[in-house]
Amino acid sequence: MIPRLRMYRSLDHPPLLPIFPYCLLPQFTNVIIRCNALPGSSFPPLTSRKSRKGDGLRGNYFLFAAAMGFGVAAALSPHRTMMIFGALLVFSYLSFKNRSLLLLVALVFMGAGAAVWAYIVDEQNESVLHKEVDTIHGNIDDVPEMDGDRVSFFLQLPEHNERVQVFARIVDEETLPAFADLSPGHECTIEGEMRAPRPARNFNAFDYRTFLYEQRVHWTFHHVQEEGDMTCRAIAGAGLTSVKQWRHTGIRFIEDVFPNEIQGLAMALLFGERSHMEADTLEAYQDLGIVHLLAISGLHVGLVSGFLFFLFIRLGISRERACEILLIILPLYALLAGAAPSVLRAVLMSCLVLLCIRFRIPLHPADGISFAFIGLLLYNPYMLFHVGFQLSFVISFSLIASATIFARAKTRFRQFLLVSILAQVISFPLIVYHFHTYSLLSLPLNIAFVPVVSVIILPAVWMLFILSIISSFLSSVWLLLLEKMVAVFHFLFIYVHQHSGLILVFGQPSGVWVILMVVLVVIAAILYEKRRKSVVFVVGFLIAAAAFQYFIPYLDAQLRVTFIDVGQGDSILIETPYQRGVYLIDGGGAITFPQENWQEQEQQPDPGRQTVVPYLQSLGISHLDKVIVTHGDYDHYGGLFAVVEAMKVDTVLYPHTDIEENSEVGRFLMHAQEQGAQLAFVHEGMGWAFDAFAFHILHPTLDGGGESDNDQSIVIDAHLYGTRWLFTGDLEEEGEKRLIRDYPELQTDILKAGHHGSQTSTTPSFVAHLNPIAAVISAGESNRYNHPHPDVIQTLGEAEVQIFRTDEQGALRFYYQGERWQGETMIDE
């Protein structure tokens, strides 16, 4: 027997400390110095020993940008002391190298000022609304997203000076056109229910509450058409609202005119809107490391501003007037493109360049990106923790700092190759930290398709969009040709993605590992620039560090059992030490009910793809020894379609029952076989064991488990370090009686309550027979079945059984440490 489990709330994984400041290590300084010393720079080299007194502040704008980053991180990140201490060390060293006490003082003041500013912004980021509000009135603040019978948008409430995320459900097809006509600027009065945003319910998962908080949104408002009134009317747009309305009109125009295959791509390239990309295609872009091709960035802004500048000059407009016109157009373009961090960075840098051209002021790119960095953090300090912001600035700054390397390249192709390699290498630690995977095909695919997108697809989409406005007839043939080209590319990406894609799973690395990787990349770049042979050894260390992160799960000696929160369903992960055995019991599955065609959503919920696979990858798991499908209910196997596609699965276990009547689960089993898994139909008496771990199958019997599908569930009696766990699937009363009858000595320490705590399971006699210390109930938050049933809770309570529930506590993780079981939950009770 074991003592009552000690449970701890899992600390939210802290956001990665901003990588940009870590570039300011002493070794990297010399790279930046050379950038400032390039022809055209108005500032002397930073290491100049002959600098006159008072020159310490000149040419050091990138240091002030770094101080800004350190200050914001010190105010908003959980590692304040480390950030402050690290900043002082770095800046003291750099100031000593420049022999400038004034520089050190200025940097300290800059960092302190940034910290105070971020702290003030964060303190003011609070809500004046409350949960009892049932009617809101305001203006739609963005382009509404509509998928089937679901509509979502942000509503700006003038009375409270606050934004709310609105979710609306349509129950009447006749009102569908009215919802489809919603656009930014519409004035709406809505009745519904105010709710706090959902926090992350699984370990290492996306935190929607934090995501909204960083957008200064504190509430979600839920409207159901039949349960409350919603009235909206169009009003004349002005200022920013007009620009958002233009963006909305452009997106709707693409929906009406462009072929289906290229609608999502065109919206992404023209307006920064990816929600219309097909799920399989977008996932392929993301996992293969080419999703940036869909993002509007410096490439797009450069092409647009370059084309317009050339056009203005050809029309006889002076360079000064052309610059002034572009200074007006580019900020509007940033808003039309969705104002993502990469767009804002590119537009800010372009505007700085235009200002310098207009007023004949020399500006080095390192200074331009530093001013853009400072400006964006002054506007919104939370951007520092945005993955797009981090990637955009880290890659851009690295390319600027490596100008000398690129200048040595003898051909354009070699320059492009070096740029691609550096961008991939410098972004690798960030990508692994945020997404936990990396595709070895990322570099070759980028080399192959970046020119295609830059030279062919992007200009073609722009030209055809303009041509379609003039005459849809003239553009139709060219749109068809573009559709065929894009269809070929997308087919290739999806095929490669589905057939491995050489995707490596690294798991969730620590911030220390990320910093180490950045330092090694910096040193390697410096040695390569100096043509030192020792660069080979540094590259070797880089590969070794990456390999260490890849293999670290196999060095983990801890035993863990995790109940993943998949909503109304089951999914249990068992990890034995050193990953000698990794087993997944069920994978959840969102049950859908019959709907009319207009109600069906393109983006269907899939807990396997959205929850289970990301969690496994965050642990560095790419291989499962066994996947156990307890029975043929969709809420147990539906999510496993994505699992067997993303993971290498050795064996899929299914109860020894007739599956002819359930063609859907049969389709899954065939799909698992196609993905390379072996099938095993199991029954009582079977099992497996190694070391101190044994798994015995107690149910179903060889001649069948029971009349209901639930009573045919696989029941596993697991012995883990002497502690007994009983996993019962959806076993109901009949199956429980059979276990009591056939196993009179059966007891367990931890019981997985059957059928999500339904009244038909976990009977008093079964609980009394097992005499468990703890019971885990896997049920969906606010599920329509009202699981777990009060009678089950009462039964467990009267037996003094400690109860854990995924509907209230989110994911539950139990781990064996110090010869005892402990645990942690995602959500406080």
From TrEMBL:
It is found in: Cell membrane. SMART domains: Lactamase_B (SM00849). One of its GO terms (biological process) is establishment of competence for transformation. The chain crosses the membrane at residues 61-94, 100-121, 290-313, 325-356, 368-385, 391-409, 416-435, 447-470, 477-496, 502-528, 535-552. Keywords: Cell membrane, Membrane, Transmembrane, Transmembrane helix. Residues 568-781 form the Metallo-beta-lactamase domain. It comes from the Bacteria. It is a multi-pass membrane protein. The keyword Cell membrane applies. InterPro entries: ComA-like_MBL, ComEC_N, Competence_ComEC/Rec2, Competence_DNA_uptake, DUF4131, Metallo-B-lactamas, RibonucZ/Hydroxyglut_hydro. GO terms for cellular component: plasma membrane. It holds the Pfam family Lactamase_B. The keyword Nucleotidyltransferase does not apply. This is DNA internalization-related competence protein ComEC/Rec2.
